[in-house]
Each structure stands twice: as C-alpha cells, then as structure tokens.
Write a structure and sequence with these properties.
heterodimer, A: mainly alpha, Methane Monooxygenase Hydroxylase, Chain G, domain 1, 86% helix, B: mainly alpha, two-stranded antiparallel sheet, 13 helices, 76% helix
C-alpha cells in the first residue's frame, strides 16, 4: 500500500517538475516572441507575420493556463509541499498574469494599430528589449526558487536592475513623444502603449520581490 | 485465565492506551503536524512498528524497571499502572507532552513506599540521570543532523518538489524506526510490572517457534498502544507538531530521527553489549521519555536557528510537567493501593 503510494508520489513529483519547468519556458518564449513582435509591427511590410506571431502568443498563453490548473489540482489532490503550496500557486498565478500582459499588449497592437513615427522606433524596440531582459531574469529567479534557493537574491537583483532601466527608457520615450509636434490624441495613444509595455517590468519586479519572501520562508 | 487477572491486566492496557495517545504522538507528531504524512498512514505504521519493537526488542528496559521495584502481586501492578495512566491522562488534559516512563517510575516508587519495599537508589539515579541526558543527547543529535542535512540539500540543488517527496519518504521511514524504538524502549512501562507475575504460559508454534509469556504480554501491550494511537493521538500530534516551534518538514524529519536514535540507543541490548565488549561504558537500558527526546530535538533545532523562535514559556511549562509527573504518579499510586487493600481487601504485595 505504502510502496504504491510512494511510487505515485515520485511519479507525480517528476510530472509536476516537468510542468513547472515547461511553464517557465513558456514565459521565456513569449518574451522572445514579443521581442520580435514589436519590430515586426513597426515594419508594416510584414503584417501577415505579425498576426501569426500574435496567434502564437495566444496559443502559448492558453498552454500556460492549462499548466497552472494542472499544477494546482495535483498540488492539492496529492497534498504536496504543504508548507509552500499556497506560495507556489500564487507565484504561478502571478506569472500567468505576466503572460497575459504580454498577450494584452499584442492584442492592443493588433486592434488599435498605433501609429509610431519612425523617430520613435529605435527607442520603442530598446524599451521592449529591456522589458524582455527583465522577464528573462525573473525566469531565472523563479527557476532558482525551485532548485537553487541560494541564487534567488542574485537573480532578483537583476530584475530590479532591468526594471529601473526600463523606467528610465519609458520616461525618456514618453518625454520625447510629448515634446514632438504630433497631435495630442496621438501622443496620448502612443504613451498608452509605451506605458503598457513598461508595466510588464513593474509586474516582474513585484513577482521577484514575492519570490524573495517565499525563499526566506522556504529556508530549510 | 481468571476474570480478576484480566481486570488487573486492564490497568496495563489503560497505560498502554495512554502511551499510544501521548508518546506515540511524539513519533509522528511533527510529520502529521506539518501535514507531510496523513494521520491514517501515521497511525497504521506507528501501530505495526510499536508492536514489532515491543515483541522483538522490549526485554532490555523491562529488566531495568524490574530492578527499580519488583512488584510481586497483580493488584499491586494494577495499582501502579492505573496510577501512571491517570497521571498521564491528567497531564494530557492540561496539554503537556509527558511520557508514561516518568509516570510508571513514580508509580513504582509509590508502590515501594506503600509496601515498605526498598527502592534501588542506584537504578533510580540511573533512570533520573537518563531523563536529563535524553533531551540533551536528542538536542545535540538534532543539531548535528540538521546542519549536515541543510548543507546537503543546499549543495544538491534539489527541486522543491523532489525535496518534498524525499522528505515524506524519510519521515515515514524515520517514523517507522521511531515507533519500533518506542515499542522496544517503552513496552516496559506498560507491561514491565506484569512480567514477574505473567498470567500467560509459553506457547510453542509447530515445534519451531516459542511464543513466550513475556512476548504475549508485550503483544497485548502493543495492541493497547495501537488503540491509543488510533483513538486519541491525533490532537496530541498536532500539538507536538506545531506549538513549541513552527517547523519545516525537513526539521520535522530531523526531530523524529533524533528522537528515534535516542530511544533506540537506550533500548538496544546489542549496542550496549558491543560497547562493553570494546571496554567502553555501556549505555544503560532504561525506558527514556519519548516526549523529552522530541522536545530536546525541537529545542536543538530552535537553538541552531538562534533560539528566538522557541516558545521558551511553553518549554518551561513542559519541564515543570516532567518534574511533577512522577510525584503525582507516586501519590496516586499510594491512594489506589490504599483503596485496593483497605476497601477491596486485595493483597498488593507479598
């Protein structure tokens, strides 16, 4: 009886480990796709490719949702990691929201089609890259929370670094937009997009802070 | 077997039930308290291994307890067990983790005082000495094991889920070992006083195996312990697991294994003989308190973490309970013996 239970315990554990790894992989991949989506959008010549990439993000988001639900069920049904279960589930939900923010940005680009003049392209691409780097560092932080608790602090520090850099880039770009000769409605529209991209970093930083607290709680 | 003998044996079974409710809770308390092991799994494993420990390795400590005071009449043994059982029950009611060990020693001394038999002071001092040593040894073992385990876990970079699975398995194994050691070490408390006056006779099974009267007594005691585990230990397990120090599952495992090692050390005739054979002082085979071992282990880990998280007021109350329990048991023993002799006209000693 106990042998079977033990075998199923280790089986569930391996499956869950894989699922959590896969979930973090998705966050990372969505970021990489998003990094290509912005220049693709700005380069109007490849609209078909842009929509294809938006669809890909949507698929990845659905997959991440499914994994979150699976992990949640298994953790509760098998009463695994009782001391850290609620922390892990909250963490996965917040990361899922981050994927949702990427997806939201893609949809807004696809539906509202903001008109970014060429002079802002490079700044917007750089802001996007910083945001993706920030989330990449968050992925490392999350992975270290699960496997190598000692490295959580170092990785979380990188998230904070990129978040600050993103704030600087956002402020500079917003200032340039409002200093330009564009009509006010367009300025507001562009600022909305820039701010929405920058918010991904804020969410990543909040999650990194959260992970640091969970890591302290998880200390052996 | 006469019905009166069964009634008298009931005293031992009552004490066995107390042991199951309290001491057995120490073995799985931290595991169940941290919700790493379900109560049902804990209760089944605990019962099986307590019975095995009692039958296979229970003889050593029984001998020592016999030297403290050889109760030579069934009503006397009944009185000692009932007194110990009641005192443990009272302490449990006020929420203090105590052990049948302290209670039965107090009750035997009570019998000695009542009947005018001499108490073997050397044995008494040895037992009292181990009560001081036991939590200290458990604490030291817990500190060492915790430091080692923590280092291994951090260096191996185990996934949180893998660590969880390993810890659960380790808790079950340590719990089984703990239950075995508890049965071996503490069965003397429950049935020790009945051994010289056992109502059973040896049974030979198929000319291969002799099931001695002592083993039959121990089996009966083990079953009583199992009943205690199933009927009353759940609440105590959660108290042991959560109140004194908020523990992580890994710390819970360390506490169980430290407790089990201490109980095993003080019950193992093999280790004692081995130490003697290499001219080292042997470990006295004494029934030690599993509560003391667990509390010692928990405090050891608490100290390693700086001592701030330990609820010292609770620790103080527990220690006070340990000191008063043998005295209470001795007093109740005197009262029960008086009642048996003067109201029921029973012979409590020869």
């Amino acid at each position: 009886m106990f042998g079977l239970k033990s075998a199923s315990l280790f089986g569930d554990t391996k499956k869950l480990e894989r699922e959590i790894d896969e979930f973090v992989d998705i966050v990372s991949e969505v970021g990489l796709v998003f990094k290509s989506i912005v220049p693709t959008y700005l380069n109007h010549s490849a609209n078909g490719k842009f929509e294809e990439m938006v669809e890909k993000v949507k698929e990845m988001e659905s997959k991440a949702d499914k994994i979150t639900k699976d992990v949640e069920h298994t953790l509760y049904e098998e009463t695994l990691i009782p001391d850290a279960r609620s922390d892990v589930l909250r963490l996965l939900e917040h990361i899922d929201e981050l994927i949702g923010m990427y997806q939201g940005n893609c949809y807004h680009f696809s539906i509202q089609k903001p008109n970014f003049p060429k002079e802002f392209h490079q700044d917007l691409i750089e802001l996007t890259e910083t945001v993706v780097n920030c989330v990449e560092s968050l992925c490392l932080t999350v992975r270290s929370f699960f496997r190598d608790i000692k490295s959580v602090r170092d990785n979380a520090h990188k998230v904070t670094f990129y978040e600050k850099e993103s704030d600087i880039k956002f402020s500079a770009l917003a200032r340039r937009i409002f200093d330009s000769e564009l009509p006010l409605d367009q300025k507001m529209h562009l600022r909305y997009f820039v701010e929405k991209i920058d918010r991904i970093c804020d969410q990543a930083e909040d999650i990194a802070d959260e992970v640091q607290i969970y890591a302290i709680k998880r200390s052996v | 077997m006469e019905i009166t003998i069964l009634i008298f044996l009931f005293g031992g079974l009552f004490l066995g039930w107390s042991l199951g409710a309290n001491d057995a809770a120490n073995v799985f308390g931290t595991a169940v308290g941290t919700r790493m092991v379900s109560f049902t799994s804990a209760a089944i494993i605990c019962s099986v291994f307590v019975i095995l420990g009692a039958i296979i390795s229970g003889a050593g400590t029984t001998e020592t307890l016999g030297k403290l005071g050889a109760i030579n009449a069934l009503p006397g043994a009944f009185a000692a067990c009932v007194a110990a059982g009641i005192s443990v029950y009272l302490m449990t009611k006020v929420g203090l983790p105590v052990s049948t060990t302290q209670a039965i020693v107090g009750a035997i001394v009570g019998w000695n005082l009542y009947t005018g038999s001499s108490t073997n002071l050397q044995v008494l001092i040895t037992i009292l000495g181990t009560w001081i040593l036991c939590p200290i040894i458990a604490g030291v073992i817990a500190m060492g094991l915790f430091t080692f385990t923590k280092r291994v876990i951090l260096n191996r970079k185990l996934h949180i889920l893998r660590l969880d699975a390993y810890t659960r398995t380790a808790l079950l194994l340590a719990g089984a070992f703990g239950a075995y050691s508890l049965g071996a070490n503490n069965i003397a408390n429950v049935m020790g006083v009945f051994v010289p006056i056992s109502p059973f006779t040896d049974v030979t099974i198929g000319n291969l195996f002799v099931f001695s009267s002592k083993e039959q007594l121990f089996l009966l005691g083990g079953l009583a312990i199992a009943v205690g585990v199933f009927t009353y230990s759940k609440r105590v397990m959660f108290t042991v697991g959560n109140d004194l120090l908020k523990m992580t599952p890994v710390a819970a495992f360390i506490v169980v294994i430290s407790h089990s090692i201490v109980l095993f050390l003080f019950a193992s005739q093999g280790i004692s003989a081995f130490l003697q054979s290499i001219n080292l002082p042997s470990i006295p085979l004494v029934p030690v308190s599993s509560s003391q071992a667990v509390v010692g282990g928990v405090i050891g880990i608490g100290l390693l973490k700086g001592g701030k998280e330990v609820q010292w007021s609770i620790a103080g109350r527990i220690s006070l309970g340990w000191m008063t329990l043998p005295i209470i048991a001795a007093l109740i023993s005197l009262i029960v013996l008086f009642i048996l002799e003067n109201i029921f006209n029973l012979t409590v000693s020869f």
